[in-house]
Specification:
Blueprint lengths: L1 E5 L1 H8 L7 E5 L3 H6 L3 E3 L5 E3 L6 E4 L2 E4 L7 E4 L6 H6 L9 E2 L5 E2 L4 H7 L1 E2 L11 H13 L5 E2 L1 H12 L8 H12 L5 H10 L2 H4 L8 H11 L4 H9 L5 H11 L4 H18 L6 H10 L6 H18 L5 H12 L3 H6 L4 H21 L1
Parallel strand pairs: 2-5, 10-11
Antiparallel strand pairs: 1-2, 1-8, 3-4, 4-5, 6-7, 8-9
Length: 368
């Protein structure tokens, strides 16, 4: 039984980047061997075990065979006879198909180290074409490493085009698309994820209406430059979709996006034009906008909305003062509700008095 450090930890170590997590491959062992050593088994499709002390993942070396279309159409061989080289051969990219032995020796049978030097994302073998998730992974890795000068190898892009033409992308399950999308949104150059999908032909299949050269992609880039969270980047990306309400709803439903993403993207598409022109509004119009954004109950979401507007404005080269709208919200929220309740207002009368007082506060604030 031999244990090797594999994948991202080896890759990032060679790149001189921080190692976020360590994954291990075990050669020459069975599930019973791992259980006898105190490892806890997780994963149903193939044996993966958690170390009894570190909780790091240890997977039995395995080979895969494609039997059905899509991401789940594989059978696995995890017998003790599977070699390290065979396990590495099934991986997606050469830079992810390296291992390190317990004494620190690099095992690199498919040229991953040279591809790191050449800054290339290149597939390990033709078996890459058997798993459509790998198209998304290539996009995500380019989003992560584009700033280092990485690009996708021509032969890998050609292979991905063939996968799209063969209909493999249509078999992607929603959860995997969302997982890769959300992770890509958090990278330094998330727009590269969509550039890869566009170049191989997968973009219109997966994200109908997205334009690689449109305002949405520019706003996504700006949001990343502002270090905005993924939920803001998602809303910025979708703000300019044609038939925005319908297409945002369709994308979020298709990939089961969390409510936070769906709500912010929808609000942004509907109200960003008003927010970018808020300084020209009357107090009444401004109060209407703040009410529509539900600033009195959803303060956090309002701040995320403003961040998204900031990214959109930067992309469109429009002056936008985020702090001005933050101050407007504070003015509207400064009316003490409990005081009005103590004065005997309730129900519709309370709502009317609240609106009146908030309008007065905004008028006074705008006049200063």
């Amino acid at each position: 039984m031999k244990i090797y450090l594999v994948g991202g930890a080896v890759r990032d170590k060679l790149l001189g980047l921080p190692i976020k997590e360590r994954d291990w491959v075990v050669v020459g062992a069975t599930s019973n061997d791992m259980l006898a050593l105190g490892y806890r088994q997780v994963g149903k499709e193939f044996p993966v075990f958690l170390h009894p002390k570190t909780n790091e993942e240890y997977a039995l070396a395995r080979m895969e065979r494609k039997v059905l279309p899509g991401y789940k159409g594989f059978t696995f061989d995890t017998s003790p006879d599977v070699s390290l080289e065979a396990d590495l051969l099934r991986r997606d990219l050469t830079i992810n198909a390296m291992a390190e032995s317990e004494d620190g020796t690099l095992i690199d049978p498919y040229g991953g180290r040279q591809d790191l030097k050449n800054k290339l994302l290149r597939h390990v073998s033709p078996a890459f074409a058997e798993d459509p998730v790998r198209i998304l992974r290539v996009g995500r890795f380019l989003a992560r490493y584009a700033e280092l000068g990485f690009s996708v190898a021509n032969e890998t892009m050609e292979l991905m085009r063939g996968m799209v033409n063969a209909g493999e992308v249509n078999a992607l399950v929603a959860e995997r698309v969302w997982k890769e999308l959300e992770r890509a949104l958090g990278e330094k150059n998330p727009e590269k994820f969509f550039a890869v999908l566009s170049e191989c032909g997968a973009l219109p299949i997966l994200f109908q209406g997205l334009n690689i050269s449109g305002h949405g992609m520019n706003a996504l880039f700006s949001a990343a430059q502002l270090s905005a969270p993924p939920v803001v980047r998602f809303a910025a990306l979708l703000h300019d979709l044609p038939d925005a309400k319908q297409n945002i709803t369709a994308i979020c439903r298709r990939y089961r996006a969390p409510n936070e993403y769906r709500e912010l993207a929808g609000l942004t598409a509907q109200y960003y034009p008003a927010a970018l022109n808020a300084r020209s509004m009357t107090a009444e119009s401004l109060l209407g906008l703040l009410g529509a954004l539900d600033i009195f109950r959803r303060e956090k979401r309002y701040h995320l909305f403003l961040q998204t507007c900031q990214a959109i404005a930067a992309a469109r080269k429009i002056d936008f003062d985020l702090s001005w709208l933050e101050a407007a919200a504070l003015a509207a929220k400064s009316v003490p509700v409990q005081t009005l309740i103590n004065e005997g207002f309730n129900g519709e009368k309370l709502a009317a008095e609240l609106r009146k007082k908030r309008l007065e506060r905004l008028e006074k604030w705008l006049a200063t």
